[in-house]
Amino acid sequence: MINYIWFILLVFGILVGIFTGNGEAISKAIIDSTSSTTNLILGLMGIMCFWCGTMKVAEKSGLTSKLAKVLTPILKLLFRDASKSEKAMGAIVMNLTANMLGLSNAATPFGIKAMEELDKLNPQKGRASNDMALFLVMNAACIQILPSTIISIRAAEGSNNPGIIIIPAMIATATAATVGILCSKILQRYF
C-alpha cells in the first residue's frame, strides 16, 4: 500500500512541476539527489565495514556472551512464558545483545528465531502473546550501547565528532525501552 502512496505522490509532484513550467528544476533535482545519494552510500560503505568488523571482533572475543549473561536474569523476570523455554530466551538474549552492540544484521535472524520460539509457546495461535508484544517493544526501542550505524552515517556526512551521540543515544534508547516495558506490562493487565 505504501508503494502506491509513494508512487502517486511522485507522479503527482512531477506532473504539477511540468504543468507549472518547472520541468527543468525537477530534472536538476532528480540528478542532484541521485548524485548525493551515491556519494553517501560510497562514503558509508567503508565506515560500515569498519564497524561491522569491530563488532565481529567483539562477538568473537566473547563480549556479546558476557553481555548476554548479564541480561539473562533480568529478561527472565520480564518474560514469564518465555523464561520456561531455553531456546526462546537464548534467541531473545542474543537479539537484544546484538542490537545493543550495533550488530543489527546479526540481530535479525535472532529476532526471527525468538518470535518463532515465542509462537510455539503461544496458546492462542494467530494472536500475539504478551511476551511477543513485549519482545517487539524491546527490540524496537533497544538500548544502544554503541550506535554504530548512526556514527557511520555522521562520519560519512563529514561530522567533526560523529561519536558525540553515544551518550544521548544511550539515554534516549534506555528511556524508550523503560517506557515501552512499563506500558507493555501495564497494558498486559487489560488486554
Structure description:
The structure is a single chain. With 191 residues, this protein is an all-alpha fold. The protein has one domain (46-188). It is 78% helix and 0% strand. The chain contains eight helices and no strands. The chain has helices at residues 2-19, 23-61, 63-78, 86-100, 104-121, 130-140, 148-156, 166-188. Helix 5 (104-121) runs antiparallel to helix 6. The radius of gyration is 21 Å and the shape is globular. The mean pLDDT is 85. The chain crosses the membrane at residues 6-26, 38-58, 88-112, 133-153, 165-187. This is Spore maturation protein A. Residues 42-155 form the Nucleoside transporter/FeoB GTPase Gate domain. InterPro entries: Gate_dom. Keywords: Membrane, Transmembrane, Transmembrane helix.
How would you summarize what this structure contains?
With 191 residues, the protein is an all-alpha fold. The chain has one domain (46-188).
Summary keywords:
single chain; 191 residues; mainly alpha; Spore maturation protein A; membrane; transmembrane
Instruction: Give the percentage of residues in beta strands.
Output: under 5%
Taken in chain order, the helices and strands follow as HHHHHHHH
In this structure, how is the largest beta sheet organized? none
What spatial form do the alpha-carbon principal axes imply? globular
Low-confidence stretches: none
Mean of all residue-level pLDDT scores: 85
Percent helix range: over 70%
By DSSP (H or I, 4+ residues per run), the number of helices equals 8
Strand tally is: 0
Radius of gyration: 21 Å
* Ends distance: 28 Å
Number of spatially distinct domains: 1
Structural class: mainly alpha
